[in-house]
């Protein structure tokens, strides 16, 4: 038998709980290490701007009498326009004596909208000035320009930012020689764009795969929820990554990421509830979760349709809700681990706890309660977690397949073995049965022969040896031959058909009756089958008839012998077949009965459960054999 | 046996031999009207002799001599081509009558053999083979049925309003049909098993 890998079932040790508590921090540490972009010369960081709110596509006039200010976060420049879109121009002074290198670059590590960059009045990126509908970016932006645009002394770099009013942040950005900035941008782009794209593709694959599993096994609804969760997650990441237009109604797209994130959590909870060993579905809680998801999603979209204000629904409903749902998942898994500490459940708890901690961390950093990292770690965490889950699901499936195959093979082997055993037993039974039948048949034949032909042959031998009184040999031997024929005839299967036996009897004796100068009269009727009419009974009937016929031929002096059949009843009123052998001879005195073998006939009849009656008058005699039908 | 046979009017024993080889040789020389053959010959099976003779000289009437006259042996003899049978112990006394009876039509059909024939020719037979290619006429079937119930030739004739000789010729037909039908059955079986190509 092939070894089946079974999940280890061991009570979670203290070490497990400790590692569970430490895992998120180890993960954060690892992420922090990965998240270390190459450092850019801090002198290239520009954080002092002049600011003007203007919807102009070209740089506006900046008041040159004020020096650029140290920019301190969000400034509310109201009112901008009716659509609640902020269009703001920033100006940075850069003093260069001799520009180093041919190529310079402007790099925005963190973005919240559409940006264009002008150097000394010339547009360097994007290819066209900003105009509606504006694209909204969340990914690092990087524009290169030739250093020939710069001149010795003070250079004016103008940045046009268009965003929704509440998100119109201008973070400090870099302007400097491209070679000192490009590696940092490339690393950030890889981390925030390439990697996330890869994760989206992986999620969609896992989504399809688990959907396929659900298709094959519709009873495992856990697969469906897992598939939905991975889809929501892929959607969430894609929505964050792709530039979106700021103009409604397409602006409704803005409401989708929190919806996708929320539904990801809800699907995950339902999935976990359906995993083996996790306690099973909790219909009431799950209904609350689903209702929450539907109501808040509709509210988010509705809110986005009527207003362009910052969505408090995301901040104060979705995100806390998601954290709570994740806490619920972790709680369920903790209970599951205590109850059923398989390797899988332990792994899942680890994954869920990690997600909860990282998610909370991201949420807190969103609320600016803790320092903001350059990226949201949740994306990476969840992608990792989903891959782990996908792999365990797949391993479950392959394990189940292997197990099924092994079981099938084993079952086939066992069935085959049983079949062989049965066959063997059956053959043995059959051979036993055959042996028994043969032995019974041999016993019957021995008895039957001893009763007839054996005695006649012994008698003939005695005559030849002169030990017996003189007797002609011929009738004795003829009798022996007759009896042998009776034995052979009696082994013909007749299926209870007495008429077949009687007809044979007549055919055998016709010639003899004729040679005795008698007429053989045949008065038969159709007869019902006799039950249990085997060779032994047939032989006894034949011998009785033979004896009766021999008596008629020897003693009666008759001119006719009649065989007649009828249906009647025996002494105890049971239905019976009646066979008469009647002659028209002179009859006999009752005292002479024994010499005619009447006792012998009576004995044979009673042996097969039949009865026999003899009657004799001066006009003839009759032997009546009565064979009961039941 | 020769003595008994010749003592009865009209019969002449042409050859008396003891082995299959001698029978074949004798048949080449003299073409008898009747061939009396025992099934248990020292150098072969009497059934083969019957089959050969029936094929090469259909005019020769073949009679089987058997000790017990049991159904199995008699029926296979008829299937091979015999038209009569004789019990060995009757041979001494009844041989002449039996041969004459056969010359007139066919040996009387014993009830056991009649039952066998009925089973063989029954049209609604549950056998999965093709129906017997040669069917019995209703009259022939009636005769067989009466025979199977033990009625003699003359009784059968009386019951059916026929003469004994008519019954006798019906009997001969029945013998012939069994032989024919068992030959076609053999062909049918062989065709079915691919031994004979039915289109050739």
Topology overview:
The complex is a heterodimer of chains A (630) and B (200).
Chain A: H1 14-34, E1 45-46, E2 48-53, E3 69-70, E4 85-96, E5 103-108, E6 114-119, E7 122-125, E8 135-136, E9 141-146, E10 153-164, E11 173-177, H2 178-216, H3 221-241, E12 244-245, H4 256-273, H5 283-306, H6 312-339, H7 343-366, H8 378-464, H9 473-490, H10 498-515, E13 519-523, H11 535-556, E14 560-569, E15 575-583, H12 598-607, E16 611-617, E17 620-628
Parallel strand pairs in A: 13-14
Antiparallel strand pairs in A: 1-11, 2-3, 2-4, 4-10, 5-9, 5-11, 6-7, 6-10, 8-12, 14-15, 15-17, 16-17
Chain B: H1 2-7, H2 20-29, E1 34-38, E2 40-41, E3 44-45, H3 46-56, E4 61-66, H4 71-80, E5 84-87, H5 88-104, H6 111-121, H7 138-148, H8 153-160, H9 164-192
Parallel strand pairs in B: 1-4, 4-5
Antiparallel strand pairs in B: 2-3
Helix pairs in contact in B: 6-7, 7-9, 8-9
């Amino acid at each position: 038998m092939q070894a089946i890998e079974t999940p280890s079932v061991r009570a979670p040790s203290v070490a497990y709980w400790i590692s569970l508590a430490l895992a998120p921090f180890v993960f954060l540490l690892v992420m922090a290490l990965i998240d270390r972009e190459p450092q850019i010369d801090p002198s290239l960081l520009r954080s002092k701007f002049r600011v003007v709110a203007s919807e102009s596509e070209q740089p506006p006039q900046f008041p040159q009498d004020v020096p650029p200010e140290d920019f301190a976060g969000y400034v509310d420049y109201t009112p901008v326009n009716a659509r609640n879109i902020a269009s703001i121009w920033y100006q940075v002074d850069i003093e260069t004596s001799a520009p180093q290198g041919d190529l310079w670059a402007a790099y925005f590590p963190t973005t919240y909208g559409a940006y264009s960059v002008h150097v000394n009045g010339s547009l360097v990126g994007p290819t066209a000035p900003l105009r509606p509908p504006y694209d909204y970016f969340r990914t690092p932006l990087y524009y290169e320009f030739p250093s020939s645009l710069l001149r010795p002394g003070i250079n004016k770099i103008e940045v046009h930012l268009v965003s929704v009013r509440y998100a119109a942040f201008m973070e400090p950005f870099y302007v400097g020689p491209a070679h000192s900035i490009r590696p940092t941008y490339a690393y950030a782009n890889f981390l925030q764009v390439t990697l996330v794209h890869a994760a989206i593709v992986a999620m969609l694959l896992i989504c399809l795969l688990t959907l396929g599993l659900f298709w094959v096994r519709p009873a495992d609804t856990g697969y469906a929820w897992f598939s939905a969760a991975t889809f929501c997650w892929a959607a969430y990441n894609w929505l964050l990554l792709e530039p979106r237009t700021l103009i409604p109604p397409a602006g409704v797209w803005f409401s989708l990421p929190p919806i996708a994130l929320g539904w990801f959590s809800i699907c995950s909870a339902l999935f976990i509830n359906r995993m083996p060993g996790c306690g099973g579905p909790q219909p009431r809680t799950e209904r609350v979760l689903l209702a929450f998801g539907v109501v808040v999603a509709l509210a988010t979209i509705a809110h986005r349709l009527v207003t362009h204000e910052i969505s408090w629904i995301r901040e104060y409903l979705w995100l806390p809700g998601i954290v709570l749902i994740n806490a619920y998942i972790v709680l369920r898994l903790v209970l599951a681990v205590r109850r059923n500490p398989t390797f899988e459940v332990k792994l899942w708890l680890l994954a869920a706890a990690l997600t909860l901690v990282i998610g909370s961390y991201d949420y807190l950093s969103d609320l600016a309660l803790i320092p903001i990292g350059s990226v949201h770690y949740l994306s990476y965490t969840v992608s990792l977690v989903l891959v782990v889950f996908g792999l365990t699901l797949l391993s479950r499936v392959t394990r189940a397949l292997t197990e099924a195959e092994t079981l099938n093979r084993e079952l086939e082997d066992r069935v085959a073995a049983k079949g062989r055993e049965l066959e063997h037993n059956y053959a043995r039974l059959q051979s036993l049965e055959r042996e028994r039948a043969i032995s019974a048949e041999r016993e019957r034949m021995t008895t039957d022969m001893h009763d007839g032909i054996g005695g006649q042959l012994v008698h003939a031998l005695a005559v030849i040896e002169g030990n017996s009184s003189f007797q002609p040999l011929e009738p004795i031997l003829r009798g022996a031959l007759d009896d042998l024929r009776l034995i052979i005839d009696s082994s013909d299967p007749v299926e209870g058909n007495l008429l077949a036996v009687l007809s044979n009897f007549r055919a055998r004796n016709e010639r003899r009756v004729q040679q005795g100068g008698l007429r053989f009269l045949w008065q038969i009727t159709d007869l019902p089958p006799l039950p249990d009419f085997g060779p032994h009974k047939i032989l006894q009937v034949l011998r009785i008839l033979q004896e009766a016929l021999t008596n008629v031929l020897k003693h009666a002096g008759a001119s006719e012998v009649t065989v007649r059949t009828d249906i009647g009843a025996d002494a105890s009123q049971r239905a019976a077949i009646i066979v008469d052998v009647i002659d028209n001879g002179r009859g006999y005195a009752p005292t002479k009965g024994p010499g005619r073998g009447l006792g012998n006939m009576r004995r044979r009849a009673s042996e097969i459960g039949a009865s026999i009656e003899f009657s004799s008058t001066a006009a003839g005699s009759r032997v009546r054999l009565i064979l009961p039908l039941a | 046996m020769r003595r008994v046979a010749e003592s009865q009017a009209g019969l002449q024993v042409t050859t008396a031999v003891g082995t299959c080889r001698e029978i074949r040789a004798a048949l080449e020389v003299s073409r008898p009207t009747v061939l009396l053959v025992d099934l248990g010959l020292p150098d072969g099976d009497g059934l083969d002799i019957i089959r050969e003779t029936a094929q090469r000289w259909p005019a020769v009437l073949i009679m089987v001599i058997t000790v017990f006259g049991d159904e199995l042996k008699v029926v296979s003899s008829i299937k091979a081509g015999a038209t009569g049978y004789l019990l060995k112990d009757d041979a001494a006394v009844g041989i002449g009558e039996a041969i004459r009876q056969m010359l007139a039509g066919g040996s009387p059909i014993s009830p056991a053999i009649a039952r066998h024939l009925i089973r063989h020719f029954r049209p609604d037979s549950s056998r999965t083979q093709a129906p017997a290619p040669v069917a019995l006429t209703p009259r022939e079937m009636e005769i067989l049925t009466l025979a199977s119930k033990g009625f003699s030739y003359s009784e059968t004739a009386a019951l059916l309003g026929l003469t004994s000789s008519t019954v006798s010729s019906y009997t001969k037909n029945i013998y012939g049909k069994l032989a024919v039908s068992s030959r076609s059955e053999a062909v049918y079986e062989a065709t079915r098993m691919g031994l004979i190509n039915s289109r050739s």
